[in-house]
Amino acid sequence: MALRNRTAITQNILNQENTKNVKSTINPLPGHARRAALGEIGNKVNTVRGAQPIKGSSLLPTVDLKKPILKQQQQQVKVDKVSGPPVQVVKPVVKKDIVQENIKKIDDIKQNEYEQQIFTDVDCNNKQKNEAFSSDLLEIQDIDEEDKGNPILVTVYSNDIYEYLRKLESIYPIDKEYLNGQEVTPKMRSVLVDWLVEVHQQFHLLQETLYLTVAIIDRFLQSYRTINRKRLQLVGVSSMFIACKYEEMYAPDIGDFVYITDNAYHKTEILQMEMLIVRTLDYSFGRPLSLHFLRRYSKAGSAMPLHHTMAKYFLEQCLVSYNMCHYSPSLIAAAAIYLAFYLLGNEEKEGRVIWTPTLAHYSTYTKNDLLPVVKEIASIIGDADTSKYQAVRKKFISSKHLKISLRPELRSPVLHALANNKE
Predict the structure, then answer these.
(1) Which contacts (CB < 8 Å, 24+ apart) does range 362-368 have?
(2) To bridge 311 with a disulfide, which of 129, 275, 336, 351 should be the other Cys (CB 3.0-4.6 Å)?
(3) Are 199 and 260 in contact, with CB atoms under 8 Å apart?
(4) Per-residue pLDDT tens digits for 332-374
(5) How is 171-194 classified by DSSP, letter by letter?
(6) Are 77 and 46 within 8 A, CB to CB?
């Protein structure tokens, strides 16, 4: 019993010493006495998020936590705690909102009146346009619509490009019967071009190279009028040599042109003639080719490969003919595609219009503009079988060119009637 009492007294002494050694982990506020441990549990906590603890928390007004507290109300609360009891806060009516609403209504009314005026003007303009233009122009199709997504075809600039080409062909014209008074005759020129068609085919050159070669020859012979018959072949070879440099990715060597002439001319002679041609033409070789316009017209007319190939056959036959030199490339191309459409589908029998408003729009030529040229081409094609110049006809016999020169339409009474002005 004495042992149990001694143990209890010892335990009581230790508890009193531990209580004296315990220090509060909470720093007291300045001006406040130290509180016992865990005494802060009884402190009242400010329920407003972001507000500092305030003395006399019983003065705080009742706050609805579901509604946001404005800064103006918070400031009002602080003032009320100092001056006296809380004052009911009344939100003032702002006249600015009413003014803005009135201004907005006025703007809406003006906008509606403005839009109505625009629609009225548009309707008037459309009515005037419909009255001004004929119904045929409404049938014009946008042939570049399907290609607008292809950046390679630059459809945005297509019409401007062809308008520029038409200006160029007027800058570099070829006069009618320009060989008058020269030693070189039209027959010599036709023989030269017929031979160059064979050379072009043997070298496997681009189509543009042949057209540019003939254009260089005609422009040079028109400007430099002292060429004799012995140097005419040299002019042709040098012109093709220049055209290859202009159009081809890999131009033939000058030795190939010496070989093709059977060593009739040396390299130095070809180079000297090349410099003479370049200086005479003032380094200008950008005259458009009829092949450029033909591609555009075939697209505008929705031509099939047969129509396009037949039109190319007509164009190459026109290269050989001296009587077709003075026509502009765009006009010859338009006449060629018209004749191809005419022969492969007679408009009188099928009751359809060949030269549609779309073709007339993109070519800038009417049917009456084309008919004289169409008749001359028909005359050339009608005599192709009996002509002395067979290079183009033999070229288009191959299956590569769809054997166009063997087509029965080229020997039909329709073609002869057109050539003889009996349609």
Answers:
(1) 362/143, 362/162, 362/296, 362/297, 362/300, 363/293, 363/296, 363/297, 363/300, 363/330, 363/334, 364/166, 364/330, 365/330, 365/331, 365/334, 367/338
(2) 336
(3) yes
(4) 999 999 999 999 975 545 557 899 999 999 999 999 999 999 9
(5) HS---TTTTTTSSS-HHHHHHHHH
(6) no
In the chain, the amino acid numbered 349 is K
**For the CA atoms of 230, 235, 240, 243, what is the dihedral angle to 10 degrees?**
180
Helix axes 329-344, 290-300, angle to 10 degrees: 40
Q: Domain boundary at 250, 280, 310, which?
A: 280
Contact present, 337 and 307 (Cβ < 8 Å) = yes
- Kindly state whether residues 402 and 319 are assigned to the same domain: yes
Task: For 86-106, give one letter per residue: b (16+ CB within 10 A) or e.
Answer: eeeeeeeeeeeeeeeeeeeee
**Domain membership flag for residue 138:** no
| Total number of domains in the chain | 2
Same domain, 255 and 309: no
pLDDT tens digits along 25-72: 445 444 444 544 434 434 444 444 444 444 444 444 444 544 444 444
pLDDT surpassing 50 at residue 422: no
- Kind and range of the H or E element at 37? none
Domain boundaries, position 276 = 174-280
Residue 198 has pLDDT above 70, yes or no: yes
H-run or E-run covering 260: helix 254-260
pLDDT of residue 9: 52
Cβ 231 vs Cβ 238: under 8 Å = no
Place of tokens 């166009």: 404
Of 280, 300, 319, which marks where a domain is finished?
280
**Token representation of residue 9:** 């007294």
Tell me the average pLDDT across 403-408. Answer: 96
The pLDDT tens digits for 303-339 are 999 999 999 999 999 999 999 999 999 999 999 999 9
The reply to whether 345 falls in a domain is: yes
